[in-house]
Write a structure and sequence with these properties.
CATH architecture of chain B: Orthogonal Bundle
CATH superfamily of the largest domain in chain A: P-loop containing nucleotide triphosphate hydrolases
Number of strands of chain A: 21
Structural class of chain A: alpha/beta
Largest sheet of chain A: 6 strands, mixed
Number of helices of chain A: 17
CATH class of the largest domain in chain A: Alpha Beta
Oligomer: heterodimer
Largest interface: A-B, 52 and 30 residues
Structural class of chain B: mainly alpha
CATH class of chain B: Mainly Alpha
Shape of chain A: globular
Number of domains of chain B: 1
Distance between the termini of chain B: 29 Å
Distance between the termini of chain A: 49 Å
Number of strands of chain B: 0
Number of helices of chain B: 15
CATH topology of chain B: ABC transporter involved in vitamin B12 uptake, BtuC
Shape of chain B: globular
CATH topology of the largest domain in chain A: Rossmann fold
Largest sheet of chain B: none
């Protein structure tokens, strides 16, 4: 049995865990649910040994786990899959996996054998692996998570802890993945699944522990509870989802026009193949797709980070881009909040005259936006890395909207966000569209796209197609996303 | 700010303690040695001015390194850039005899800055357009610059009698005068201080400086938000080179008045230590350079009166850097927070990113 007893952990002034007791039994899938900032990840880090608690201890089968030693935890049979994948960016995926249990530990590193074992396991899971010898740095978030799951499983762990693994998986991968978790359970292993997708917790878990602001507020089972009850427990209040239909968005003249957009990568592989679409003023257009089908490249083209091999994009005004990897592409984590805001050129120009930066005006702007977008931060001088994921996302949305663009291009903006934060971000995007802005929302989350998008496009293997209203059904769209043809 | 500046000096005290242990082991008196060091560096007016004179090229090159490192451009080539600046100043300085003093000096200094800018700019261009790692290119360009100086003073710029491998002295009009003879105090130091303030304002009070720092902290995010990395890379490297080159020109104009082999004893490398001790803060480069200048200057007196080799000073310098870097670890930050509370400067009160509660 995996147990945590009276765990307390404080970060500076924040009490992340406040005397938390937790237990998971062999042969069960135990879901750990809670809002962003509830302490789920901190608890996982304590159990996996990557964080030493201030008080309390973790036990596996009544043996005390050495605090703060991931190595000891791994040796005891606890493997963790982190939400932000911990991979070596400049190494190939095979080399990354060689650090796991796929390597037999001989004198020589046999990458071919590692790759073969990884492929075998991946095939069982229905995971798609990157091409041989590809380095991790240009892979999508979903691909990275898949690699981490494989690495964790390669240790043949007795306890597997997963932090929000499913938010980046495609619908087709999800079923195989949940089956895998069930298999691990039947083998008598312990699976701890951290998630904020309540339907999923109810579908797959045997027991559920709910955390709120560093405390356990409920221990329950799927039979005894419901999504509504769990949501109430997690948040302590009811979240009102924004109602897209009520806003009566009507598409105006096209603002963003993309014509025959084509991109070949350095090796000559066609990444984007003749994309053409338009986004009108006051319209939210969604692009659905499994990560790694050209979305990242499309966003980079729209942001002007790279240039297309062919085709063109025109927009009737400034384009603000919210890239998907907020910690790598969107924010500068060790700079202050106001500095992150003025990273956007229009905001920087507001506080610059003749090349001189007016720092106090920039700080004042930061204070205004913190207030207006309800970013939970001590002040504009806070370092961005000190914000929680949800607040980092609010910061990015605030920056995009405050730049007063005609077009916002947003990529997986609600990934890893809880219900309240997601509702908030969606409300902002809808408001922007209602005020005449054009939005291109690229996401692998169908629920999100169906909730707020007017029109839906599907991207698959670098090609795009429009969907008809009668295809607006998760099952049907899921099939189209994975490239199924009629 | 205060704690980020106090830290290096705590490191200095700690390294002094370590050095004392070494000295005792060698059978010398630490107090006598440090007294001699202090006496040699600051014992009288001339010693003080000499310390400043020795710090001067370190301020220029220290600023060069700080600016480049702030943009995460690892310019290891300040020595080469300084050398090229000196060559440009020394070559043009001999032809300015007929010009008024202020114009001649301005031309010499401008020549040094341009020479350094070109040398730094080459490395920047290689990085921006051909993706050549600037660490490698600047090290290689150091070799080229040093050999170019050697060739110049044996060849085209050799003094007319062809007896010594030096250039002719630059025209009197192009020399920076000493304000308080016989001390060697000159306008170059004031220029260094003004430039330090200017560099600070550039980094923290201008839009361009913000772009530079953003590039240094997160190149990908900077790219996403429209900062033109290639152009900025070339400009930053050219500016960095110009600062180092100006240091070379000041050295020629004020102190050496002519070119000779090994003009720089390695200022451009010591500058990396200076910039790191100053934590890339241009204002803090001044005291950091003075510290290293004082160590250099005092070492001679130490050698004279205590029989300690000046190499030991290099050991002290190396220890200072190592200890400052060691003080930077999270372990130290954690210790400090436990002792003094987390409310110190807000940058260090933030938990490391990896430990942030729930993303």
């Amino acid at each position: 049995m995996l147990r945590a007893i009276a765990i307390t952990k404080r970060f500076g002034r924040t009490l992340a865990l406040d005397g938390v007791d937790f237990e998971a039994r062999p042969g069960e899938i135990h879901a750990l649910v809670g809002e962003n900032g509830a302490g789920k990840t901190t608890l996982m880090n304590v159990l996996a040994g990557s964080l030493a608690p201030d008080h309390g201890e973790a036990l596996l089968d009544d043996h005390r786990l050495q605090a703060g030693s991931p190595r000891a935890a791994l040796k005891a049979g606890i493997a963790a899959v982190h939400q932000s994948p911990m991979l070596f960016e400049r190494m190939t995926w095979e080399e990354n996996l060689a650090l796991g249990g796929f390597d037999t530990g001989g004198e020589l590193l046999d990458l071919v054998a590692v790759a073969a074992r990884a492929r075998a396991l991946a095939a069982k899971l229905g995971f798609e692996l990157p091409p041989a010898g590809a380095t991790v740095e240009n892979r999508s978030v979903a691909e990275r998570v898949r690699l981490e799951v494989l690495r964790a499983l390669s240790f043949n762990p007795r306890v597997l802890i997963l932090d929000e693994p499913t938010s980046v998986l495609a619908p087709s991968e999800l079923r195989a993945f949940l089956d895998l978790l069930r298999n691990l359970r039947t083998e008598g292993r312990i699976v701890v699944l951290i998630t904020h997708k309540l339907a999923e917790a109810i579908a797959v878990a045997d027991r559920i522990t709910v955390l709120r602001r560093g405390r356990v507020v409920a221990r329950t089972t799927p039979a005894e509870t419901s999504e509504e009850k769990l949501a109430g427990l997690m948040i302590g209040e009811i979240v009102v989802q924004p109602d897209a239909a009520a806003m009566q968005l009507r598409a105006g003249d096209p603002v963003l026009r993309v014509e025959n957009l084509t991109l070949d990568d350095r090796t000559g592989r066609r990444v984007l193949d003749g994309l053409s679409f338009r986004v009108g003023a006051g319209e939210i257009v969604g692009i659905a797709g499994v990560d790694g089908n050209g979305q990242t490249e499309l966003v980079e083209l729209l942001a002007g980070v790279r240039s297309p091999s062919d085709g063109k994009m025109t927009s009737g005004g400034a384009v603000a881009v919210i890239p998907q990897n907020r910690d790598l592409d969107g924010l500068i984590l060790d700079m202050r909040l106001w500095e992150n805001l003025i990273l956007a050129r229009p905001l920087r120009e507001q506080v610059t005259s003749h090349g001189w930066l007016n720092t106090s005006r920039a700080i004042e702007l930061g204070r205004e936006l913190i207030e207006r977008f309800r970013i939970r931060a001590p002040g504009p001088e806070t370092i961005a890395g000190a914000l929680s994921g949800g607040n980092r996302q609010r910061l990015e949305v605030a920056r995009a909207i405050a730049s007063r663009p005609r077009v916002i291009v947003a990529h997986n903006i609600c990934r890893g966000l809880d219900l309240a934060a997601t509702a908030e971000v969606h409300r902002r995007i809808l408001e922007f569209a209602a005020s005449g802005g054009a939005v291109l929302l690229i996401s692998s989350d169908l629920d999100e796209l169906l909730a707020i998008c007017g029109r839906l496009l599907i991207i698959s293997r670098g090609k795009i197609r429009e969907t008809s209203p009668d295809e607006r059904d998760p099952e049907r769209l899921g099939l189209l996303m994975t490239g199924a043809r009629d | 700010m205060p704690s980020s500046i106090a830290k290096p000096f705590a490191a200095l005290a700690l390294s002094a303690a370590l050095i004392s242990i070494v000295l005792v082991a060698l059978g010398a008196s630490p107090i006598g040695v440090f007294a001699a060091l202090g006496e040699g560096a600051f014992g009288n007016w001339n010693a003080c001015v000499d310390t400043i004179v020795k710090s001067c090229p370190l301020i220029f090159t220290g600023l060069a390194v700080s600016i480049a490192f702030s943009g995460a451009l690892w310019n290891i080539g300040a020595d080469g850039q300084l050398t090229i600046g000196a060559i440009a100043a020394g070559a043009i300085g001999t032809h300015l005899g007929d010009l008024p003093h202020s114009i001649a000096v301005a031309i010499v200094l401008a020549a040094g800055a341009i020479g350094g800018a070109v040398w730094g700019g080459i490395a920047g261009w290689l990085r921006a357009r051909r993706d050549v790692n600037e660490v490698i290119s600047t090290i290689m360009l150091n070799f080229v610059a040093v050999q170019m100086l050697s060739w110049m003073v044996h060849g085209p710029l050799m003094e007319p009698s062809r007896a010594y491998p030096t250039s002719s002295p630059i025209a009197f009009a192009a020399q920076l005068e000493f304000y308080f003879p016989p001390s060697r105090f000159n306008l170059g130091m004031l220029l260094a201080v003004v430039l330090a303030v200017a560099c600070y304002m550039l980094l923290f009070n201008t839009s361009a400086g913000f772009e530079l720092r953003a590039m240094g902290r997160n190149r990908r995010a900077a790219t996403f938000y429209g900062i033109r990395i290639p152009a900025l890379t070339v400009w930053v490297m050219a500016l960095s080179g110009a600062l180092a080159g100006l240091g070379g020109a000041v050295q020629v104009s004020a102190i050496s008045h002519r070119l000779y082999e090994k003009l720089s004893p390695g200022w451009g490398f010591e500058a990396i230590a200076v910039a790191l001790v100053a934590r890339l803060n241009p204002i803090a480069v001044i005291p950091a350079a003075l510290l290293f200048g004082a160590l250099d200057n005092g070492s001679q007196a130490m050698q004279r009166t205590q029989g300690i080799s000046p190499e030991l000073v290099q050991v002290i310098q190396a220890l200072v850097i190592l200890i400052i870097l060691a003080f930077d670890t999270p372990a130290w930050t954690g210790l400090r927070e436990n002792i003094f509370g987390a409310a110190g400067d807000d940058a260090s009160a933030v938990p490391p990113v990896a430990e942030t509660p729930d993303a």
